[in-house]
Amino acid sequence: MSTRTTTTTSTSTRPGRRPARGGPFAWRAVDLVTLAVLGVALGVAFWGFDTFLYNPLKIALAGFPPAQELMLGIWLLPAVAGALLVRRPGAALLCEMVAANVEMLLGNQWGQAVLISGLLQALGVEVAVALWRWCRHDLAIAALGGTLAAVFEITLYEWWAYVPAFSWTWKLVYLGAGIVSGIVIAGIGGHLLIRALARTGVIGHFPPGEEHLLAPSRRS
């Protein structure tokens, strides 16, 4: 009996392995509100990046245009962070679409096209977490989510809408740059963001916050 209890506790407190309360489909009002708040905050961050950093970075990378896709991970971050935080189907989609709508409303150079991008990016993350039936949300899944978000966005949209004149060699390099960005900025960055929020205590009612509070180093 004690062995079973110890095993259950160990699994539930391992980073990324604690399930959402009530199971993945038991959505709560606090889940919706928190994802919306996170999406708005990251949407404002999108606007700041679009306004102050995107064009200077694009110019700096103009010598090799496919490398400009190294910036893609910035826009994938809400989907990964939302999925890691709430751990329910649709969490990545909700957080990403709120951020995309805020970015559109505040003004950007792509207009309503950011909604198409947001949808594809979020679907990539949703596929990643669904493969493990919303039971695993660790760093590896965050990286996989960033990877699939980049693949969906680039192969289904950006290749044809933004870089149709690229040769296939350049398109593949463009894809590779996007995947690297998705892994590093959205995957690793999203993972670190949620861990940082957990340490503050503001997400104590969500699985990452519960994992932090129940971690062996914090037990009395």
State the share of residues found in helices, binned by percent: over 70%
Distance between the termini: 23 Å
Topology pattern, helix = H, strand = E: HHHHHHHHH
Strand content: under 5%
What's the shape? globular
Low-confidence stretches: 1-10
Number of domains: 1
- Beta strands, count: 0
Mean pLDDT over all positions: 93
Tally of alpha and pi helices:
9
Largest sheet at a glance? none
Instruction: Output the structural class.
Output: mainly alpha
Radius of gyration: 18 Å
Write the layout of secondary structure elements.
Blueprint: H1 2-13, H2 29-52, H3 54-60, H4 73-86, H5 91-106, H6 113-130, H7 139-161, H8 168-200, H9 207-214
Provide a brief overview of the structure.
By secondary structure, this protein is an all-alpha fold. The protein contains nine helices and no strands.
Written description of the protein model:
The protein is mainly α. Residues 1-10 have low confidence and may be disordered. The relative contact order is 0.16. The chain has nine helices and no strands. It has one domain.
Search tags:
220 residues, globular, mainly alpha, disordered N terminus, single chain
